[in-house]
Amino acid sequence: MGTKKNMSVSFVLIAIVLLWLKTYTVYKFNFDIDIENKMQEFILFINPLSFLMFVMGLGIFMAGRKQKIFVVATSFITSFILYANVVYYKEFSDFITIPLLTQTSNMGDLKSSVGELVGWTDIIYFADALLILALAFVKTPKITFKKYKSVYAAAFYFSAFGLAFFNLGLSESERPELLTRTFDREILVKNIGTYNHHIYDAYLQTKTTAQRAMADGNQLTEIENYTRAQYKEPSKEMFGAAKGKNLIVISMESTQNFVIGQKVNGQEITPFLNEFIKDSYYFDNFYHQTAQGKTSDSEFLLENSLYPLGRGAVFFTHSGNEYMSLAERLKENSYYTAKLHANNKSFWNRDVMYNNFGYDRFYSLPDYEVNEENSVGWGMKDMDFFDQSVEHLKAMPKPFFAKFITLTNHFPFELDEEDKFIDEFDSNSGTLNRYFPTVRYTDEALKLFIEDLKAEGLYEDSIIVIYGDHYGISENHNKAMEQYLGKEITPFVSTQLQRVPMIIHIPGHEGKTISTVTGQIDLRPTLLNLAGIDTKQDIQFGADMFSEEQDNFVALRDGSFITEDVVYTKGVCYDKATGEPTDGASCEPYIEHAKNELSYSDQIIYGDLLRFYEKDEE
Ligand code: GP9
Ligand code: MN
């Protein structure tokens, strides 16, 4: 600490400030972090500081030689971590995570290109550490290597804590539920900083590693017996109905089923889908089963026919697990597999997870031409996304499995004037009001996409599956929803609102509405059976939606469930016919069943049990 007589600066403080400024400079020059306003810039600027104070700050408890060694070593180690991220980012436009490092294909890519990524001039990234090293040898009264008095040390750490909380508070207000809900690594780093991101990542890793270590293969045997007993024979007529055809699956952002066939202000909300349904299979009792991981949870359900987790996003927490993905099974059967979504590839940790699922290709942001004109709200407009995607489809080997994820109909449901084909609703919820025109917009985008597929000769060779990923209108908007639906929203109605559209179009097949109670968990077996791929031996919790043995049972992630006759939610059993609470006895037998389903699925994920799976010889 400085005194008036002899002004000197603490060696520890110099190191902190240098590293802090360097980190911020690297943020600006080496990472492509999208800054939308001054507050975000400010958060980005302060976010390295608390970590550096905590770690480098330990130097204030030491003096002289000890302090010098500690500060110099910490400077180099921290610089190295930052530099490793710079190198990694050059190649992958993403930040390092532990699962990424252990994924061999990624590392292989990195090793082969490391020569091109690293150069002598990179020494500049260590300039501050070298300066610190030099200062350690300089004898000047201007720098002090003293230990802090305990009162100063306490004040120092008190400030570090304060700063950390201040940083988190600002981030929370910029990005609510940052650590549990939305998981874009870029947003995470932007808010908590690159160093804290590593700590957070290490925490997730330790937790999963411990749970995984405690698991053993016997657990899987019990679960396997359970899922085998649940297996439903596919319908003879539908098994292989799409064999050899391309499989185009479209996940519609935030689209709930209540808009299908309905109007707002006397105008149809989904005119295209309403027509498309007429010559497709339409499942009108199909539920989303997602939780905090939203879109990524729906993708997880589709790929694995496993339930997502109750807390956090499994795409983030268990991306290193062994899975039996839909993509992998299709690939084994000579499909080319691709994901198409015009967003940051690291959003929801997709780049890592898709790699694990075995996708051949992920067409993400850099594969699209995105500009001011063709963007709104969250990014590229659906119409342009589909339009540019057709070119990608044309380039794919056939048959392909192409999975699309739309974006425009995402909260806060913004739209340019020229894209509003219908008027907003008029209620106290701006969200619900805007929802209708954005749903209508995506409907139009789908219409144009299908026209394009026809023009390119892809339509007749493809089966097209369209479904909603999760709800768009949360319970916060119940008042406005009551106004639109013209009825009270009880927990029963809320649960029914979790239905999302589900449409399967197969060339040459006539349209049919199927009202079996089904959910996203059923997608994997249904699609594989349509492709003529048997799933009898697979561990999955869903069943073919065309099966005559379908049990009309869907469990939602919160333990609610729906059968042919009842809806069970928040501990109350409702009669579907009346929507009124009924005798608990009608729900009783299923309560255990729902619990078992969810807990078996959780056990698979927490224990990474599929690594013990062995296929029986037939
Ligand atoms: C982002 C998109 C939206 O890429 O999939 O995710 P959500 O917020 O709906 O989970
Ligand atoms: Mn979504």
Please give the domain count.
2
Report the CATH superfamily of the largest domain. Answer: Alkaline Phosphatase, subunit A
Largest sheet: 8 strands, mixed
Shape: elongated
Tell me the strand order in the biggest sheet.
9-8-12-3-13-14-6-15
CATH class of the largest domain: Alpha Beta
Computed structural class? alpha/beta
Strand content: 5-15%
* Helical proportion, percent range: 40-55%
Bound molecule types:
(2R)-2,3-dihydroxypropyl phosphate, manganese (II) ion
The helix tally amounts to 22
Total DSSP E strands: 20
What CATH architecture of the largest domain would you give?
3-Layer(aba) Sandwich
CATH topology of the largest domain: Alkaline Phosphatase, subunit A
Low-pLDDT runs of 5+ residues are none
Structural summary, described in words:
With 618 residues, this protein is an alpha/beta fold. The protein folds into 2 domains: 9-210, no CATH class; 232-557, Alkaline Phosphatase, subunit A (3-Layer(aba) Sandwich). Helices cover 46% and strands 11% of the residues. The chain has 22 helices and 20 strands. It has an 8-stranded mixed sheet, with helices on both faces. A 4-stranded antiparallel sheet has the order 17-18-19-20. The chain has a two-stranded parallel sheet with strand order 1-2. A hairpin with a 2-residue loop joins strand 4 and strand 5. Helix 17 (382-395) packs parallel to helix 18. The model has no long low-confidence stretch (mean pLDDT 92). The structure holds (2R)-2,3-dihydroxypropyl phosphate and manganese (II) ion (MN). (2R)-2,3-dihydroxypropyl phosphate binds at residues 253, 294-295, 341, 343, 347, 405, 407, 410.
